[in-house]
Amino acid sequence: FPGMNAAVRAVTRMGIYVGAKVFLIYEGYEGITGGGGTVIGSARCKAFTTRAGRLRAARNLVEHGITNLCVIGGDGSLTGADIFRSEWGELLEELVQDGQISEEVAQENSRLNIVGLVGSIDNDFCGTDMTIGTDSALHRIMEVIDAITTTAQSHQRTFVLEVMGRHCGYLALVSGLASGADWLFIPESPPEDGWEDLMCERLGETRSRGSRLNIIIIAEGAIDRSGKPISSNYVKDLVVQRLGFDTRVTVLGHVQRGGTPSAFDRVLSSKMGMEAVMALLEATPDTPACVVSLSGNQSVRLPLMECVQVTKDVQKAMDEKRFEEAIQLRGRSFENNWNIYKLLAHQKPAQEKVRRSPFSLAILNVGAPAAGMNAAVRSAVRISICQGHTIYAVSDGFEGLAKGQIREVGWHDVAGWLGRGGSMLGTKRTLPKTCMEKIVENVRKFNIQGLLVIGGFEAYEGVLQLVEARGQYEELCIIMCVIPATISNNVPGTDFSLGSDTAVNAAMESCDRIKQSASGTKRRVFIVETMGGYCGYLSTVTGIAVGADAAYVYEDPFTIHDLKANVEHLTDKMKTDIQRGLVLRNEKCHEHYTTEFLYNLYSSEGKGIFDCRINVLGHLQQGGAPTPFDRNYGTKLGVKAVLWMSEKLEEVYCKGRVFANSDDSACVIGLRKKVVAFSPVTELKKVTDFEHRLPQEQWWLNLRLMLKMLANYQISLTEYISGKMEHVTRRTLSIEKGF
Fold first, then answer.
1. Which of 78, 284, 375, 444 maximizes the CB count within 10 A of its CB?
2. Rounded to whole angstroms, how far apart are CA atoms 3 and 262?
3. Taking residues 671-688, what's their average pLDDT?
4. Does the pLDDT at position 577 exceed 70?
5. What's the domain of life for this entry (predicted)?
6. Mean pLDDT of 606-625
């Protein structure tokens, strides 16, 4: 699966970094039991499932003095590792009795520590938020869906898309949510009896409304209520026979396992690899075998067997047709995805005459375009309609609000917006203070009681200006919410801005190509300039994803001494068999040490050893179709923001009007650690550096330790925060995890 190599690299480098001796075992368990193999492959191994095989494996490990094992694989591999660990003492005794090892050797190697990194593309391991490889698989699926969508512009077609997932519907569910599919089959929630009629009716309806394309997504393990498989061909034949639509089946198969890993998977596996080494170093005789995982953006350790147990419970619940329970055991975010999909996929007939709420909301985009903005607008519009609100779309940001570029939108006006990059509404950087009177006039004219602003730092600053003008204009005493959407990830109140994942992937793909351009030429160092204003998030995370030698950012001040050390480090490296170096520089990291300056410095110092080239990535970081993460994230933020606004509107609605002037009536919605939080803009103002357009505290700065360690710099690990051991039970799975 994609990301495995990044994990191997991180474990190896971190192991060497802490002074351990690191061995790579080739061809999985086959390699330990003494089978063949050349590169560090991966294999399912028959021998290891037998006691004799595990005995040979124990002898091979003891011969090399290996007592710490890091296993990267799915639940099968990890369960095998746990059995091996529980038998370790007996296996050594047996080896002593057979005279294969001495008593002393058995004493020296008396304890086997095991830590697992979960890799499986269908995210089927319970307790872990995301397994390595899942995000990359979603990238492959979305590429195919985007390609199919463009063919529908010329042909009217129905596509039945079969994705992997024998027992777990995660890939089908998230790709259905991220593509706005018309119908979805997942093993955990089989369709009600009589689904055939309902599905055909719905497809007919969307076609008669002018849609040229129907997408049906089906997990390979899809079943009906009685447990009978539903095949993609059965669905296709149904559509052809009943509706006569031109229908095609596309089975994605192993395409989903291939390709280069996404940025998320590269960073995830690097983080987990580093944490795995720490977990092995800190293991005691009482620590259970654990898997390292990510919870929000924090590393955690989970007891391996607790995860395996819950994973088995899901399968059992499905076998016994307890489907509601199966969905709950998959964890809260799986359940959320499923509920949101059902809410947004199709307008319920009853909702066309739903109780009209007395409220009117307006949505606008502010600042530079960011991928995922359209997904957020789409879900916000649709959920508002479900709630019975009147919903207005505003073109061109605050300027459009001032000029009256405001129109009411319906359910179908936002169809097809999910996968579009940029901003379909149109966006501008204008701040409200330049046109306050006119904004107030239109808020009054259209009777707007809620304002949802999707955008970057200007969106936050703009809402702050509106709140501060409430004393002057009573019309601004309404509910306001900001969804942070910017490639720079510099809005306070959230760990991740919408659009930053797409930008990191775009920058990473460019750097991959830039590095490749030098293969076969003489030694070369590339100086690559990224966007981000003063915020170094984009260059730091891209740096980790592409294995950069350095990433210069404003938040981590550097002097000429640091530059000198970096140049010497690269020069030493280039004297070995390494042919390429990559240095990232955030556009505003230093007033005087410009990209040109770095180029001149590296060129003259590297003379005779390597030559240099500059690349400024520029606007390609803002463009492109949104990644699966941003489509999903935008969709969820849109829903959560509107639900929060509806709740607040009800609270402040009195005698037929809305009057809101408390701090918590104007908030930024964001993901903080692992929960969705609403932070009042007036509170956030206290922790914002307005001159540099940055939050004063930024969580991702601790990722820079990993960047430097992986680039082989001697740094102190005293600041490294180890993951805590957390338990996995039915109760913990039901906790709201954000995303």
1. 375
2. 8
3. 92
4. yes
5. Eukaryota
6. 89
Residue 350 pLDDT > 70? no
- Which bin fits 57, alpha (ψ -120 to 50), beta or left (φ > 0)? alpha
**Rounded CA gap, 355 and 205, in Å?**
23
| pLDDT on residue 42 | 57
Q: Is the pLDDT of residue 101 over 70?
A: yes
Q: Where are the beta strands (DSSP E) in 546-691?
A: 550-552, 580-586, 611-616, 653-654, 657-658, 666-672, 675-680, 688-689
Q: In what order do the strands lie in the sheet with 580-586?
A: 550-552, 580-586, 524-530, 611-616
pLDDT, position 353: 54
Q: Is a pLDDT exceeding 70 seen at residue 563?
A: yes
Whole-angstrom distance, CA of residue 269 vs CA of residue 567: 28
DSSP letters, 430-476, are --GGGSHHHHHHHHHHTT--EEEEEESHHHHHHHHHHHHTTTT-GGG
CA 399 to chain centre: 33
3-state secondary structure 232-287: HHHHHHHHHHHHCCCEEEEECHHHHHCCCCCHHHHHHHHHHHHHHHHHHHCCCCCC
Cα 28 from chain centroid (whole Å):
28
pLDDT of residue 39: 39
Name which residue leads in pLDDT, 319 or 238.
238
Per-residue pLDDT, averaged over 85-98, amounts to 93
Chain centroid, CA 628 distance in Å: 8
Q: What is the mean pLDDT of residues 83-96?
A: 93
Cα–Cα distance between 258 and 106 in angstroms, integer? 42
User: Among candidates 291, 118, 46, 39, which has minimal Cα distance to 57?
Assistant: 46
Binning pLDDT at 50, 70 and 90, where does residue 416 land?
confident
CA-to-CA distance for 611 and 699, rounded, in angstroms?
35
DSSP state of 190: P
Residue 738's pLDDT is: 47
For residue 201, the tally of other CB atoms under 10 A from its CB is 11
Name all contacts of 54-59 with Cβ < 8 Å and 24+ positions apart.
54/83, 54/84, 54/87, 54/91, 55/91, 55/94, 55/95, 56/32, 57/29, 57/32, 57/33, 57/84, 58/84, 58/88, 58/91, 58/92, 58/95, 59/95, 59/100, 59/101
Mean pLDDT (whole number) for 183-198: 93
End-to-end CA distance of the chain: 22
Q: Which amino acid is present at 57?
A: A
- Selecting among 82, 122, 501, 630, the annotated active-site residue is 122
Q: Do residues 528 and 584 touch, judged by C-beta distance below 8 A?
A: yes
pLDDT tops 90 at residue 94: yes
Give yes or no: 122 in active site: yes
Q: 554, 536 in Cβ contact below 8 A?
A: yes
Tokens 């046109």, located at residue: 435
**CB within 8 A of 438, min separation 6: which ones?**
402, 403
Max CA distance (Å), the chain: 92
Average pLDDT over residues 714-730: 77
Q: Quote the CA–CA distance of 512 and 193 in Å, as a whole number.
A: 49
Question: Is residue 434 a contact partner of residue 627, using CB atoms and an 8 Å limit?
Answer: no
Q: Would the pLDDT of 668 be above 80?
A: yes
With a pLDDT cut of 90, the percent of the chain lying above it is 65
Give residue 227's identity as a one-letter amino acid code: G
Residues paired with 480 in a beta bridge? 451, 666
